[in-house]
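User: Predict structure, ligand pyridoxal-5'-phosphate.
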Amino acid sequence: MGLSKTIWTTPTEYLSREQPEDPVLFFAPMVLQTTARRFLDGFPGLVTYAVKSNPDEMVIANLAAAGIQGYDVASIWEIELIRRAAPGAAMHYHNPVRSRSEIRRAVELGVTSYSVDSQSELAKLMEIVPVGAEISVRFKMPVAGAAYDFGAKFGATEDDAVALLAQVNEAGYIASLTFHPGTQCTDPMAWDSYIRTAASIASRAGVAIARLNVGGGFPSHRLNEVAPMLEQIFELIDRVTGEAFGDARPDLVCEPGRGLVAESFSLATQVRAIRDDAHVFLNDGIYGGLAELPLIGIIDRTEVRGPDGALRQEPGRGRIVFGPTCDSVDRLPGELSLPGDMAEDDYVVFHGMGAYSTATVTRFNGFGNFQLVTVMGLKG
Ligand SMILES: *Cc1c(COP(=O)(O)O)cnc(C)c1O
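Assistant: Predicted complex:
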């Protein structure tokens, strides 16, 4: 991925002048800073960023400049990245499974906040992490409303969480709770039962928790028809925490990935072929920047432009869209409505592409050679 040093005005300016043949991810730092401010102004607690959703150093630097002071990290690589790109920021090592050597290294690098979801991993933490650090017990619930189920891999059951929380507290660590309601939760109610369950776990364990981390899961704008309701989610989290915990209200933390970063990138792909006026073949697909679409559904916020930058205006028509590799699963789910007058060499621009796109690109079949271009704005 090559970083262009020039800052362009819009994606269209770049596409029409350069006519790139590789996919381009356009990054608008101002859009990222605006979204960061929306979280900082609206969320009733500490906003941290889930680094895995987009670990680009420019993203971290812009979030730090916007005032994001904490990062959810899952590996030593991410910890070292944050030390470099946002020195002094808090790091929450919230991958609940780590090797002993990773825990030792994190302690050396000054990490003082960890999550845990099992007895065996708590024993490892207690052996290595100095007392006085924060350990957050991660619990899970069966919850509908997310694009996919995060509880399938991580999270203690309620009963196990009660026992873990009591042990953490007794051992002299700062005892907290954390959960992740699932990604792309468009329904604010996804947080409701989690927060109430957290209060019940704390009360059964007899522990006044220091902090409650309500996870990521904040939605981005993927479908034209479904705009994310961040402020309603913030309001619900604030209200339900007050109702559930009363006088024992913990400080709140959130760790959005997608909700913070998605809107600040658009992905431009080029049409390599329209086979017999039916199937559209793009220069990017599910092994590249569009990897998430088969997992959590299509993004229909697209625009199609000719190589000269002119917008294709004809009404949309459902098309089957394939990526460039020879693998038959390299296909976007369902059909994408694309203008009737679209042609070979046109650019199909997908908006809201900043999360889980740059990070998951592969070089499968010789594709995946991306460019990253900085722009003032993503519209036009
Ligand atoms: C991936 C992840 C996040 C971010 O999830 P989004 O759905 O992108 O907001 C937050 N916390 C943890 C522990 C994660 O693993």
